[in-house]
Design goal:
Chain B: Its main location: membrane. Chain B: One of its GO terms (biological process) is transmembrane transport. The complex is a heterodimer of chains A (391) and B (316). Chain A is an alpha/beta fold and 391 residues long. Chain A contains 13 helices and twelve strands. In chain A, 33% of the residues lie in helices and 19% in strands. With 316 residues, chain B is an all-alpha fold. Chain B is 78% helix and 1% strand. Classes of the chains: A alpha/beta (391), B mainly alpha (316). Bound molecules: adenosine-5'-triphosphate, iron/sulfur cluster and magnesium ion (MG).
Amino acid sequence: MSIGNQIDGLPTPSGTPGAPKLLEVRDIVTRFTTDRGSLTAVNGVSLSLERGQTLGVVGESGSGKSVLSRSIMGLLPRANTERSGQVIFEGKEISGLNDTEYRELWGDEMAMIFQDPMTALNPVMKVGLQITESLRFHLNMSKADAKDTAIALLKAVKIPEPEKRFSSYPHEMSGGMRQRVVIAVALACGPKLLFADEPTTALDVTVQAQILDLLAEQQRERFMGIILVTHDLGVVAGRADEIAVMYAGQVVEQAPTALLFSEMKMPYTEALMSAIPKLTDASHTRLAAIGGRPPDLVNPPKGCAFSPRCPYVQPRCHEEAPALTPSPTAPEHLFACFYPIGSPETEEIRLRIAAQRLMATAPQFVTPAQGPPPIGEVPAPPSTADQPEGM
Amino acid sequence: MFILKKFGQLLVTVILVTLFASLLLELLPGDPTEVLIPSGSDQQREDLRQELKLDQSFAVRYSTWLGNFATGDLGNYYTVSSDRPVSDRLWQSLPVSLLLMFYAQMLALIFAIPLGVLTAYRKGTWFDRTSNTAAFAMLAIPNFALGFLLQYYLGVKLGWFKTSGYASPSESPIEHLQYMILPTITLAVGQIAIYMRLLRSDMIATLQQDFILMAKAKGLKSKRILFRHALRPSSLTLLTVAGLNIGTLIGGALIVEVVFALPGMGLMLFEAIGRRQIVAFQSMVAVIAILYILVNFAVDLLYTVLDPRIRNANKS
Ligand SMILES: Nc1ncnc2c1ncn2[C@@H]1O[C@H](COP(=O)(O)OP(=O)(O)OP(=O)(O)O)[C@@H](O)[C@H]1O
Ligand code: SF4
Ligand SMILES: [Mg+2]
């Protein structure tokens, strides 16, 4: 099951045979009580992860990625939250722990990197203290040892002048530097499992790659399992061993990375794919959003949750909800769709859509406009006006 | 630059406040010397009238006082037998008032900070709701009414504390506390309610922040998260209000001193008004105004300690 990212000479990502998996999650359901009723943010997710491996969790905003990570880690507030399912960490069921028992795991065995480095660090605490406090608490280090370790960590995440930065406040650093500090905090006690919840979304494109490379490097050195959460398939493409695609709180497609990209089955995954920002796009361009809105999680649609937005929707999709099942050709490839990409029904529709697009844009090619359009200004094809806009 | 601006602010405030205060005393009818030295001879009265420049215009009287005050001469407190310098009495009564306000502020914060933090943490629980109701009740009781109640029940009926009078801490620290406890509680109760509710709402906002979740994900204990991570960024409003509140506190202290016969500025001011001690009154009002501004200045400095981002903004 290990594909890509495997380096010769390192222990195999699958760990010792027979040993329990690093993480095994079975049928997690997380509901919030809201004014409008019960909101199902995570709906029956099962996953597993070995040490040294990366699982990418991909989905658009609101698909339940953060709630899933927090449910696994046990970080959700207890009030108004209802959680069920099993979380087995190194062979031990942890979902029923109380906060005191969780504290032994948090920061020490499992850690989390947050989306926005501008808000994830305490603005009134020096960054050094934010790193040393968990060292002192979990590893009972002396003040001096903790300081040395923290400076070594700052060096490891490639912060220039780590001794000086130890006494800086977060606001004295750039976004990329702060995210490195956040990573240093997460790595401090040597966790086995790292949740990275959109670690680069708030950063510049150039900084994004640096941070992701840093994570990969630290993962190799520390042999951590990483759950890399993102809305951007492009981020996990070259970095995850396996990808789980989430929609409306459910995993709708899951496969080893290469297989997912070569044999994509879900219409939703296909739509996410076309939303990957191209290198040629100006930085910070909004993603070509998937048409339509994410479903209401209090009153989800009947049948397949993606049916209101799916280009290949058939009558059956409105009636029955497809279950996550292995592909007949590759059992490690799971998907939840009645009419996956490549099936006769979708092929026919795909061709029809392509033909319609072509016809809608055709006049441009048939009757040339008065001279070529000015550079940088592309005349919009008439069809785009009819396409629903998302986001 | 910063200091200069503050000094200008101080000057303007002192002048405005004392001008207004002395104008009010001007409005009282009759000859002040009749109240000042009721049993004095005609000659004595005439001398006093000369000294106070009562036959001249208000502008002359005020500017003379201002000039004297600026050079440190606070004027005299007039009686038939002897005139005592206002500064003498000031040195005796100012510490009493300052101590009273200090104790009250400390007591208020000692109760309000943990209560504010815990009610925010336990938002919506039985504990939060009870504290909230209690806070409203405390706010609704006027200072003097609470003072009389405490005086009667804890002082007179139970005899636990002294109900009127004063001993300085250097004379007898125990007695000093016995005298100060009831006035301090009286003055602090309303402040506890205000501070607690302010801190609670700011804490609730802070506890939603990412860096709190991050602190939790580090495995820190709730106590550390609340008091080391959340309290400081939540306390800026509290600090501002505590500074602004010095005005309310001074007003409250004046009333409480009268109720408990504490020989502080309030009691002295009360007397000065009753006895038409114009000069003493003006000087005391000026001293109180200066104090008020100095405290607010200290609050400004404290901001930069609490929030390093302000420190940088000030530098640049
Ligand atoms: N504490 C909460 N109470 C009620 N609803 C919540 C709560 N936390 C999350 N939700 C809802 O759960 C759904 C999933 O949220 P989640 O934050 O997991 O999405 P996400 O996939 O992480 O999206 P994003 O990319 O925007 O971070 C959303 O509809 C959100 O409104
Ligand atoms: S089940 Fe139907 S609606 Fe759902 S994704 Fe597949 S084709 Fe689209
Ligand atoms: Mg999220």
